[in-house]
Amino acid sequence: MEIRPARPDAAAAIWSILEPVIRAGETYTLDRTMGEAEALAYWLGPDKETFVAEADGAILGTAYMRPNQGGGGAHICNCGFMTAASATGRGVARAMGLHALAHARRRGYRGMQFNFVVSSNERAVRLWQSLGFAVVGRLPGAFRHPRLGEVDALVMFQAL
Question: What total number of domains does the chain contain?
């Protein structure tokens, strides 16, 4: 599997990953009715470095990295990750996470923070903890899950 910067010709493949995650509304705070143009503008925005995970010519996942805050907080990065449903359980998210950690170190970031990990997204929580992230905050009932109701959101952090 190769992790590389996203090129403009990857937009359709990225949308094919984003759309079902957005529509499900279970893991991201994005509007479930968000359209393709708006979603791609968000994910590929100029404030982000966007990457794709590719194997055998197919894009299996996508991730972005950006400063978590401006000014005095710009030394900590924030990332988002999505994996194609067809690639679940194949190590795509782990590969993207490892790539992001190495890339963040190369960029000189001093830490990586996930601001809002939905607590019911147990696979993601386990993955990030296995990669060295700690839960440093809990926001009680901060996410309205479409099936589970209000669930907690976690703030996760790793010093780099």
Answer: 1
Please write the tens of the pLDDT for every residue from 85-109.
999 889 999 999 999 999 999 999 9
Distance CA 4, CA 92 (A): 13
Which residues are 135's β-sheet partners?
156
Under 8 Å between Cβ of 96 and 81:
yes
CB atoms within 10 A of CB 13: 17
4 is written with which tokens? Answer: 């590389």
**H or E stretch including 150?**
strand 149-159
For residue 94, what is the domain's CATH number? Answer: 3.40.630.30
pTM reported for the whole predicted model = 0.94
Nearest to 142 by CA among 1, 29, 21, 13: 29
